[in-house]
């Protein structure tokens, strides 16, 4: 293993925490004897190209510094390769880091953990979800939650989480169920009316909403959560339960496990790890052991 590793930095993550987090993480890695190179792109495509160049050149590890969006970008570079992934989680949601037990908003601690894992040859081999040529680590969302994302992304004001709280209220006012066609593995398609359908490689999205509660990132399966036809009042009662995963016991919620999931619905965008993956139809497949995550024992 080369002693040169690459910090992959989003300077805007967590309202500017990304830029500040890179320095203590890099210092911890350098104190452990590693040569650290930093990659910051002009935009997401440029950053990804630079990360892929670093992986192709044999960097000892790619360390994502930022939130779930930065982890998602890093996965596109390291998935299916032997290059291990490190995460310095300083974003807003940090679902990937929380799920995998990594430090959150503690960049020096995260840097030390990564250094120890590299020196000890320790990593966790995790599954990833794949849609076409794109990879995701946590959840592919569609329906009510993806429409909230759509609306929030169009809003110029306010900033931060408040924007998405307002987007939720606006989507509730326009709430209606969606006709889906859901296909699991090689089974016959199911025609369903649903509020949302989430496909989880991991359990949570949106900063701790455990929509696919119980999903394991190394079991070779995707967890599917369907919130069916329900009223606005029912949705308001059920939605807060998602933070503890207690929504799964509600009669309107159905769950499945599968290796591939095809979602079809008109006018619905799929979001994975908080990033837009395109309009449905989309087919998600699990790829076992697709990434090597640097982690504690």
From TrEMBL:
<keyword id="KW-0443">Lipid metabolism</keyword>
<comment type="similarity">
    <text>Belongs to the diacylglycerol/lipid kinase family.</text>
</comment>
<keyword id="KW-0594">Phospholipid biosynthesis</keyword>
<dbReference type="Pfam" id="PF19279">
    <property type="entry name" value="YegS_C"/>
</dbReference>
<keyword id="KW-0444">Lipid biosynthesis</keyword>
<keyword id="KW-0067">ATP-binding</keyword>
<keyword id="KW-0547">Nucleotide-binding</keyword>
<dbReference type="InterPro" id="IPR016064">
    <property type="entry name" value="NAD/diacylglycerol_kinase_sf"/>
</dbReference>
<keyword id="KW-1208">Phospholipid metabolism</keyword>
<dbReference type="Pfam" id="PF00781">
    <property type="entry name" value="DAGK_cat"/>
</dbReference>
<dbReference type="InterPro" id="IPR045540">
    <property type="entry name" value="YegS/DAGK_C"/>
</dbReference>
<dbReference type="InterPro" id="IPR017438">
    <property type="entry name" value="ATP-NAD_kinase_N"/>
</dbReference>
<dbReference type="InterPro" id="IPR001206">
    <property type="entry name" value="Diacylglycerol_kinase_cat_dom"/>
</dbReference>
<dbReference type="InterPro" id="IPR050187">
    <property type="entry name" value="Lipid_Phosphate_FormReg"/>
</dbReference>
<protein>
    <submittedName>
        <fullName>Diacylglycerol kinase</fullName>
    </submittedName>
</protein>
<keyword id="KW-0479">Metal-binding</keyword>
<keyword id="KW-0808">Transferase</keyword>
<keyword id="KW-0418">Kinase</keyword>
<dbReference type="GO" id="GO:0016301">
    <property type="term" value="F:kinase activity"/>
</dbReference>
<dbReference type="InterPro" id="IPR005218">
    <property type="entry name" value="Diacylglycerol/lipid_kinase"/>
</dbReference>
<feature type="domain" description="DAGKc">
    <location>
        <begin position="1"/>
        <end position="134"/>
    </location>
</feature>
<keyword id="KW-0460">Magnesium</keyword>
């Amino acid at each position: 293993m080369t002693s040169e590793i690459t910090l992959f930095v989003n300077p805007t993550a967590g309202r500017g925490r990304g830029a500040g987090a890179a320095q203590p993480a890099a210092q911890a890695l350098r104190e452990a004897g590693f040569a650290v190179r930093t990659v910051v792109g002009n935009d997401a495509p440029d950053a990804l190209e630079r990360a892929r160049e670093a992986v192709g050149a044999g960097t000892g590890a790619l360390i994502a510094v930022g939130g779930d969006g930065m982890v998602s970008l890093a996965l596109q570079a390291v998935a299916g390769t032997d290059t291990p992934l490190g995460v310095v989680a300083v974003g807003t949601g940090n679902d990937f880091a929380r799920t995998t037990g990594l430090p959150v908003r503690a960049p020096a601690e995260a840097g030390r953990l990564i250094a120890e894992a590299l020196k000890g040859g320790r990593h966790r081999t995790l599954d990833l979800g794949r849609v076409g040529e794109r990879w995701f680590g946590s959840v592919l969302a569609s329906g009510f939650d993806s429409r909230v994302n759509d609306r929030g992304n169009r809003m110029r004001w306010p900033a931060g989480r408040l924007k998405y709280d307002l987007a939720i209220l606006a989507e509730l006012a326009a709430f209606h169920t969606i006709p889906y066609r859901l296909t699991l593995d090689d089974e016959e398609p199911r025609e369903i009316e649903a509020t949302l359908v989430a496909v989880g490689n991991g359990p949570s999205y949106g900063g701790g909403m455990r929509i696919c509660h119980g999903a394991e990132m190394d079991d070779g399966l995707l967890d599917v959560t369907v919130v069916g036809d329900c009223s606005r009042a029912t949705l308001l009662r059920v939605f807060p339960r998602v933070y503890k995963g207690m929504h799964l016991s509600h009669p309107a919620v159905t769950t499945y496990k599968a290796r591939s999931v095809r979602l079809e619905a008109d006018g619905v965008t799929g979001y994975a790890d908080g990033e837009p993956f395109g309009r449905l139809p989309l087919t998600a497949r699990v790829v076992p052991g697709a990434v090597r995550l640097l982690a504690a024992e």
